[in-house]
Each structure stands twice: as C-alpha cells, then as structure tokens.
Amino acid sequence: MFERVTFKLNAKKTLYGNWKVPILVTLVNLVVSLIFKAPQIYYRFAYGDGYVSVSSPIFTLLSLIATGIISYASTVFYLSFVENPKTSFLTFLDALNYWLRGVLAILWQTLWIFLWSLCFIIPGIVKAISYSQMFYLLAEYPKMSVKHAMKVSMEITKGYKGHLFMMCLSFFGLLILNTFTFGILSLYINPYMNLSFVNAYKFLKAKALETGRITEEDLKKEF
After folding, report:
1. CA-CA distance, 133 to 130, in Å (whole number)?
2. Which helix (H) or strand (E) covers residue 114, if one does?
3. CA distances from 44 to 27, 48, 61 (A)
4. Hey, which of 38, 78, 124, 211 would disulfide with 117, CB 3.0 to 4.6 Å?
C-alpha cells in the first residue's frame, strides 16, 4: 500500500541530525536557479511585462539544461543519502560529471510532456507523473538509457499516479508558505520533499518487481 505519510515520516527521520549536506545541495540548486532566472527578472523590471526578449527562448533552454544536470546530481545524492545519511557533498559533485545523462533526460522528458500537453492540460499532468521516476532510475542504474528509463517509469507508476499526485499536493501548503519567506524555507522543504519522493520511488520499484510488471533484467538493460 502506498503510504505517503510513512514516506514523509521516514524522510524526517533520515534528516534528523543530518541536515548540513542536504542544505548545501539545496543552496547549489537555488543559486543555479537564480542565475538563470536573473535575465528574465531583469527584462521584466527594465522593460515591463509587455516586453518579450529575443533571447528569452535561449535562457529558457539553458535553464532547462541546467535543471536537468542539477536534478540528476541531486537525485544521485539523495538515493545515496537515504541509505547512508553520512553521504558527503562529494557524491553530489561527482554526479555532475555525468551531466549529459541529466541533459538528455530533461530534454526527452520535457518533449513528451509538452506533446501530451497539446492534448489539453490533464493528459500532460498524467504523463508528467508517469515519467516522474526517470531520474531515479537513471541515477540508480547508470547504464540504463533515457528511453528505457521512461518506459520503466511508466510501468512502475501504473496504478499509483493518483497517489503520487496526492503526495505532490500534500506539500502544497509548505510551498505556499515558502513564497512568504522569499525561498528561505526551501532549505527545509527541498531535502524533505526529495527524500520523501525517493522513499516513494523505492516502494514503486519494489512493487513493480513483486507484481512482475518489471524484472531485474529490465533494470539492467543498457538500451
């Protein structure tokens, strides 16, 4: 049974007394995000809401690429951290060397979510949840291809997309509160959310293996 409350409680237990490195990883995420948002903020304040910068699509693409790289490295870190709360910051830094996996994953994922969103917003949301486990799979299985990770993600989320959606909503209050702290609360929210969803991923993968929707061979494939 999908126990989101248990996943979140276990995340808090793992973080207890071990906040230092997750906060550092979060700070890196926030700084990178701010760097790529800065040009858009500048154009808005300098020229007003009606101004559309010619270079904005470039900034959007660069921001997406940076998000993929940082997300992949963060996922590698949290997958390790959930098993060993003493995981060092070097785990995150080392994962940055595999930046291409993060770039390919975010571009492939975004492309398909965009295409499904053309069929109205709900199909886009459903597919976004279906593809939500890609980064975990790619981080845990370094030889798995991006395309195969998408297929496996779709399999392990079958029957649980509603549960994942409700789990996302369960953080909504904290995210709203974060806006009133100018993002400072992210130092608490991001590690908490990341570990909660890592726990959910481990459950989904275990259930998929147990029910035969995927096999160990599926996880070891290199294509």
Report:
1. 7
2. helix 99-117
3. 25, 5, 18
4. 124
